[in-house]
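S.,

Sequence below, as promised.
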Amino acid sequence: MNWLRQFFTKKESSKIDIIDIMILGVILLIYGIFSFINLGSTTNPQTFVVDDKVNSTHIFEVTGTSGKVTRMRYFVGPEQGSYLVYGSEDGENYELLGNTKEEDYVFGWYDLEFMPTNELRYLKLVSDTEEASLGEITLDGSARIRAIKKDDALLLDEQDTVPETISYKNSTYFDEVYFARAAYEYANGLPTYEWVHPPLAKLIQSIPIALFGMAPFYYRLMGNISGILLIAVMYLFGKALFKNRGFALLSALFMIFDNFHFAQARIGTMDTHLTLFILSSYYFMYRYIDLPKNTKLSRKLLFLGLSGVSISLAIATKWTGLFAGLGLAIVFFVHFYRTYFLNKKKITEKNKKEMIKIIGSCFIFFVFLPITIYLSCYFLFPDVSVYHVSSLQDLFDITKSMYEYHSTLNATHSFSSEWYTWPLMLKPVWYYSSSTVDGMRGTISGLGNIVIWWTGALAMIYCFYCAWKKEKSVFILVIAFMCLFFPYLVIGRCMFLYHYYPALPFVMLALTKLVKDLVEKTQLYIVIPIFLIIVMTCFIYFLPVTSGTPISEKKIESMRWLPEWYF
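The prediction came back faster than expected:
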């Protein structure tokens, strides 16, 4: 085991060398390939019939039936709404077969079941709401449909996209109904439906949609890429903190084998982008405060600038970035005070000039740049559903509306949870569940790796103790965690476990710190691979309920270890 001891005891710098690049390349390639498996379909309807008034009618001729017709499978387009569905034998007398549901998610496949009929010769769809849209329809069995009006052929022109089974692979789920829809609207120059968060993440999400079309793989692509990059930043941060590639690798592996990260990165929402930007901002800030005092000013400003860019992107993604920005300010000013004022009787002229340049640069990096990026996201892409943002007054109005929305939201949700339950993962968010077929069901829950989360909670408490003992390396972890977690003590709106996601990487780094100190004190380096095996086993065990893989109801039931673990 000498190699194991050497791997975790060799002192190295924060710099990334060829060995680090090779390690990163291997783990990112393996995880990347794995994360893209069953991410989503690349084919879904791209043309839609959109009705903006009630009683818009679409009539089809049904041919080729040799058996009873019992189902219409349909794809909801970019507008939620409902249609009344009628059937007829002669094209004149119609009987109501059923109706699509207004609460159906946009960009999703659904089935309308109706009483069996083998005399169905005409099908009529009548919009029942002011806004409604469909992308494709088909009937079961050998029934074929022909559009009578030319425009209605848009509902029959992509029959090859109709799936055999409806699942998350071909339909939106959870908050994708907001963010994937907004990304589609940005990609197509339409007013965006989702306006309660800043635009950046949705603009990033819209890039593959604009290039390749509106399909699950593409509106989840950028989030999954951010999830992969998040692992890389964990490695870099671990290397910078612990000056050892063994513990850098351990930090990255914690992220790789966390079920919550895996599930969250594969949903077409904004949270993985946010977490990546926040972690990057703290990594670059740590690189700055970790520089020797005699480092050239240009290198100091480089890391400060990169930290400023990262936090600017975070704020333009979600206002949670402001909490992270507060933490960065605390870390910076504490370091600034220690560097230039602590234990110094007189500040030299050289130090004064450097201080002025650093403070001036920080104003640019952490004030001017965030404002500029934030404004640019709105002014370059001004169309949102509540306001057309083309002036500072428009921006003020929508910002005020966003604040009022979040501060006065009294909505309840069956999967909301209190902030103090998050570290122990007492109530995960249930994102998706498919229908049970032959006793098998697919489900996706925002459930973390219990080994990482539960020991990580202890590790963060340990880091608070280390910070109290003035250990420099953990100070930034403690400040980041406090600023990303404790603000929720005073936020009264409905909250969910995924609000803990930006704080999670710092919990994992704290866990690496705890493992490092334990094995260095006991010299039992064999504990590290044993602990990793336990982590990996837990990840594999809970993977089915965080990936949507169909398994038996009995197996699903066996994984509900706590009362509010619903999946």
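The chain has a mean pLDDT of 92.

Coffee later?
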